[in-house]
From TrEMBL:
InterPro entries: HotDog_dom_sf (IPR029069), MaoC-like_dom (IPR002539). This is MaoC family dehydratase. Residues 19-107 form the MaoC-like domain. Belongs to the enoyl-CoA hydratase/isomerase family. Pfam families: MaoC_dehydratas. It comes from the Bacteria.
Length: 138
């Protein structure tokens, strides 16, 4: 994908962002530095929620943001982690467009609501809703 614009963010579109793998050493490094709870540092650790979110974010940046001029995140509305993530888990990353509209204050600015998900097979392990802002190229 290259050169995505506001018109590419139509309700119902799904961006398949590829598969990311939860690396044990990265999980532990993150936990030691930012979230040193025993469950994240155990012999069989579970990933910190924000580490899991960062796996999705990396796939989003690589798969969409770097190909979309003038895209920025306008905020996040909610995050949930319905299932734990373990070392070695292969997670399918997706971004679904829930809806898009023009900004009332600035019609050159598009606003899109995004559903972020990571799935291990059929099981969702991360879900987030965020808003992105897109300015059409001039």
């Amino acid at each position: 994908m290259t050169g995505l614009t506001f018109g590419d963010f139509t309700g119902g579109r799904v961006f398949e962002l590829g598969t990311v793998t939860a690396d044990r050493d990265e999980m532990l490094d993150y936990a030691r530095r930012f979230d040193p709870q025993p469950i994240h540092l155990a012999e069989r650790p579970t990933a910190s929620g924000l580490f899991t979110a960062s796996l999705w974010l990396r796939a989003w940046v690589s798969g969409v943001v770097n190909d979309t001029p003038a895209l920025r995140t306008g905020g996040a509305n909610s995050f949930s982690w319905p299932a734990p993530v373990y070392p070695g888990d292969a997670l399918a990353a997706r971004a679904g467009v829930l809806g898009a509209r023009r900004s009332r204050d600035d019609p050159s600015l598009g606003v899109a609501d995004i559903l972020a998900t990571l799935n291990r097979g059929d099981e969702c392990v991360f879900r987030g809703q965020l808003t992105v802002l897109l300015r059409e190229p001039t």
